[in-house]
Amino acid sequence: QVQLVESGGDLVQPGGSLRLSCAASGNIFSMYTMRWYRQAPGKQREWVATITSGGSTGYTDSVKGRFTVSRDNTKNTAYLQMNSLKPEDTAVYYCNAIWGRQTYWGQGTQVTVSS
To answer: Which end of the chain is more exposed for a tag (fewer CB within 10 A), N or C?
Structure first.
């Protein structure tokens, strides 16, 4: 069983930046594909970004050029650097770990972009 704990969510003004962290338990973190999702009020959860075990990354179109996903396998942690934040980025952000048929979710962290 893997536990994921997100942190770093906050209230930030438009144009600001935040870095979210996702800390994982266990000793095979490097083998997981890590994904970030978000869910805004009244909307479905949507995929935001992926980083594979090999370091390949992918982003949904709305965050390309503004968000950067990364990982530090020595710290069992994945990150989501979010720059140039917009009000429409407001959501609960979740991290997700996948290895084969195993998938795990964190509890989420709230990001609010507002002046």
So the answer is: N
Residue for token digits 């390949």? 56
pLDDT, tens digit, 9 for 90 and up, residues 28-66 = 899 999 999 999 999 999 999 999 999 999 999 999 999
Spatial distance between the Cα atoms of 88 and 67, rounded to a whole number of angstroms: 14
The full DSSP string for the chain is ---EEEE---EE-TT--EEEEEEE-SS-GGG-EEEEEEE-TTS--EEEEEE-TT--EEE-GGGTTTEEEEEETTTTEEEEEE-S--GGG-EEEEEEEEETTEEEE---EEEEE--
Q: Do strands 11-12 and 109-113 pair parallel, antiparallel, or not at all (unpaired)? A: parallel
